[in-house]
Design a protein that fits this description.
single chain, alpha/beta, seven-stranded parallel beta sheet, 26 helices, 20 strands
Amino acid sequence: MDSSNSSVKDFFPYPRIRPEQEKLLQDIDTAFKQEKILLAHAPTGLGKTATALSAALFHALEKKKRILFLTSRHTQHAIAVETLREIKQKGVSFSSIDLVGKRSMCSQEIAGLFGNDFNDFCKTIVSRGECEFYNNMRSKQQLTVEAKKAVSDLQKQAPLHNQEIINFSKEEHLCGYELAMALAKTATIIIADYNYLFNSHIQQNFFAKLDLELKDVIVIVDEGHNLPSRVVDMLSSNLSSITVKNALFEAKKFGYNGLLVWLQELARILDELNDNSDPSGFEAKERLVVKDEFISKVKAVVAYDELINELELAAEEVRRKQKKSYLGGIAAFLEAWKGEDQGFTRILAEKNGNYGLVTTLSYQCLDSRIITEPIFKQIFAGVIMSGTLTPLFMYRDVLGITKGMEKEYGSPFPSENKLSLVVPETSTKYNLRGEAMFQKIAEKCSEIAALIPGNVAFFFPSYQLRDSIADNIRSSKKLFFEKKEMSAEDKNLFLAEFKEHKTKGGILLGVSGANFAEGIDFPGDLLNGVVVVGLPLGRPDLHTKEIVKYYEEKFGRGWDYGYIYPAVSKCIQSAGRCIRSETDKGAVIYLDERFAWQNYFSCLPKEGLRVTKEYQKLLKEFFGV
């Protein structure tokens, strides 16, 4: 299909386009024509992926641009690939590549290797010529004959999922990452994680390999509400007493006796800083630390940069023997600590860990704009989309978007399929907590669970609060308790058993912002109701206070941006587990009197939302109980 005599609608992959979807398509088209960034709050089920990809492909082919479709969810990769296959069937000519992280695409046995440990291991074995997969892929920086054939063969196939490329690479004994990079060099559209654009180091290498410039890129950010927190996490670093302890064991094990004294001194410095912490912190002893306060204490023992160099040299040797190194982790933190103060905070905190008290020194980013603002200024155009991108003006501010358009879209679901209620009869507000309130909340939960047929999910502000309330929940349905730390396998087993109970009915007891509150789908009758129990407003620790203070100085909206809106966003994400398609039917209940307060109520999705104490009558009518 030739884009010169067609329109964005011609690239849309499905026979029917819904009214709200058409609005989104037109707005993306307008944003791209005007070289702007569209911030789109578009509820679940609208078909954001198909809409954004078809509009982006039309403009990319017309203007000779490249597309970066960025998502933080592995499931979304598969949806994007499937959408591209549908578009290709319409006769649109383009190439694509689906990338995940370098570690995930590695053909080596790398179990237990993460972050810097993997990067350093990879760099070491490649530079020494010890990686057979890389050697089969490249010789003297050029693609081998085998690699060129693999690239040619894969380019002829339909858009491929990253797992297909990984499997192919292992079968052919090639480096999956290098193969993907070779395919990306000519790809019109690249599906990838946020890191490929918003991690400065990764972006620099990635763009250099592809001979790409920001001004030639159209960016689609999926699940855009996650972007600010992902960016500040990338720019943050910490050093814990456990890391230092493990580094001491490592130094002893491999005979780096010269480092032992310095590491012991580092442990002493953390203790010394901790002795001056405020014992009245909400959850921990904590205090702010000035950059030079820590550096000067280290310098009293050893030259700061010398310590970094010695740790890095030792870590390189250790990785050759056991792949990962705690010594390298400390070196990376010490390097990061030398960074800027503007937009960052430095905090020392002592908290209870799994094995007793842990002291952690953190260098924490407060401002995602440090990375995002220059990127959004330079790219050709873009769209940032999510079902919880509210309020839009906050995301515009915290991402530093200056050439933006802000649009909200209605839900595609028939209003009669969804019951949305605020029930203002209880509260998880800190000063109201106690056995009487926990009992009252449990009674409401028990009542609601009985009125909603089949499976229902309750999301609480914290595990501690959930357990205090759940003790008093009485129901014939089986209770499923989400655990704090769950592997992918644990989650899959948990969900499979919960879904099996859809006829008898099960109760999922989870936490807002945790394992099952986002990125998990319960289509059809697998989940008939969600109850968001209370606001996940943690008592403000020093980090939260620093964010609030920073946003107040920058935007005059400290408590809103740093405290209230992020908590409400978690609630909306939790509520979104219920209705996933046009044919789904379900109830969403916000159980806390504060949801009726204007500053919280104004952030919630408005379609059919009612504040009521007559929830029993309304639930009976809705489900025909």
